[in-house]
Amino acid sequence: MGVAIGAAAVALALALTWAGAGATRATPDAPTVATAERHRWLADASRSRIGFVTRYAGGAVEGRFGRWTSDIVFDPTDPASASASIAIDLASTETGSDEMDAALVGADWFDVAAFPEARFHSERIHPLGGDRYEAEGRLGLRGVTLPIRVPMRIVVDGDRATATGEIELDRSLFGVGQGTWSSDESVPRMVRVAFHLVARRAGSVEPAGPGPEAVPSPAPTPIRPATTPVVEDHRPKPAFPGQTMAKPPARPSRYRVESLASGLDHPWSMAFLPDGGILLTERPGRMRLLRPDGRLSPPLSGVPAVKVVAAQGLHDLLLDPDFARNRTLYFTYFAPLENDAPPSLEGWIAWLTLPAGQHRARPYGHERIARAMLSADGASLTDVQVIAEGADRRLALARDGTIFAAAAPPAGGGVPVDMEPQRLDNSYGKVLRLARDGAVPRDNPFAARSGVVPSIYAYGLRDMEGAAIHPTTGLLWTVEHGPRGGDEVNVIRPGRNYGFPLIGYGREYSGAPINGGRTAASGLEQPVYFWTPSIAPSGMSFYRGRLFPEWRNSLFVGALAGKRLIRLELKGERVMREEPLLAELGKRIRDVREGPDGAIYVLTDEKDGELLRLLPAAPGDRR
User: Fold this and answer.
1) How far is C-alpha 179 from the chain's CA centre?
2) Which string of DSSP letters, residue by residue, matches 332-384?
3) I need a labelling partner for 607 at 20 to 30 A (CA). Which of 95, 133, 381, 450 fits?
4) Model confidence over 5-14: pLDDT tens digits?
5) CATH level 2 (architecture), domain 2-214
6) In the beta sheet, which residues pair with residue 152?
7) This prediction's pTM
């Protein structure tokens, strides 16, 4: 997705030729200091927006930049004297998806580690008549500096002002992304950016009323889709019929949606307690309890320190099979190093780009599985113990009482894939199998093999963000993110190699083929199902309830980028039908579970995330 944003940084810098946010920089050249001070403008970041929209991998990508600084002088009676110096923090990209944000700041796209800022300095601002202007200047991005022009409308009313405009630019001029730019075979070259900026004159008193929006001024320019269509022509041939793009059911499902809780900060997982409460994790490092009466508790005490960066944080939650008696639970999280520095996307990307084999020796944090007890009043965790390291994604309880743990490889951020999932001396891209005290079961497939992590149960996988035990066979099923396409549903069997990155149905983030584009090879397992383009799957659950008889034996998968809940009708280990649900909400779906009441429960991945419950449609409800 990051290739779509290079021009957004360009247009952002251009938009800011009139106003900026946050701190100011050195005083620019001006006729006099007094004149400069009288016509210096301070942007109101809370009321301003600079956004972009394009398409990538078959879906819309929208976002903004959260941090920028400026020093702006503008006199509408003398635009020739105007000057602007702008700096944009490229690490402040905000799309609503931490994983997507990490991709945008990676080496293939902004390359924040090498070029942390985009800088613009105006040379002149030309009046075009009335309140129309064109800013002319030079923009530096990714080590490339080019002349740039941007049209805008500026309305000044006393000490308050607004500026609106939009621009379409060619990101490839700045070396952002890879591909055949001239033919748009990688991603669309062009991106459209719209901005609406609100500011007050420096030294003026902040208005107490509704603010600049009360000033007669143009409405914010709507952000429209880029005119250049995406060309996502990667359609790998499936290994067998029905392995992808299954047809929808003959009749769409009917259901209604209830919101049980809101205000959750990127919730990740849930567990149903015997008393009717629901324990929830939030990725920034909090657990909260939704009590049976519907009250949402404050964060529980006793949760260990969590390192939050990109998609890393506090993740899955699993109750012990004897929880009603022992109050024991298990959870996964990313822990800080000893004497750790504050996390940053730049540091995270630098770690991701280490050569294969070096990530374990030079960790950025610790992927951990912990065991704890939930206090009787549900207000705290006690007796917290780390039982294993090397995995921080999904957990699943096997029929024999052991725990399956999904371990993600260093991936995302636009970083090219590497061979970590094929190396047996680490846990990256593996399913681990552990006893509930963290011990390694003797019958693990590699337990007696020298030089191999003994907890490995299966390998050659990627970022598994969903895991569930099949209710009939007892086998573990997982769903994983591909890089650019190639999201997979797999049935996990002991000792098997699931192929990544030797085979796969996706491509590099840049659009380049992985290992020559091979999708099959002898001795490597095939997925039950795959999606290309990517839906960014997360969370999965088999349905055995009675509320929805037509859903029995279906597999539900959440979609983050796809912004929907997906129902897969199964026949054995084959997918027969695929049905999208909740697409009308337009929300990223993080987790899905069948509740004790037979309803489907869903978590949305947002700053103001929700816990939703799907129930049968009420009489007369058309949905």
Assistant:
1) 23
2) EEEEPPTTPPPP-HHHHHHHHTSPTTSTTTS-SSEEEEEEEEE-TTSSBEEEE
3) 381
4) 343 444 444 3
5) Beta Barrel (2.40)
6) 133
7) 0.74
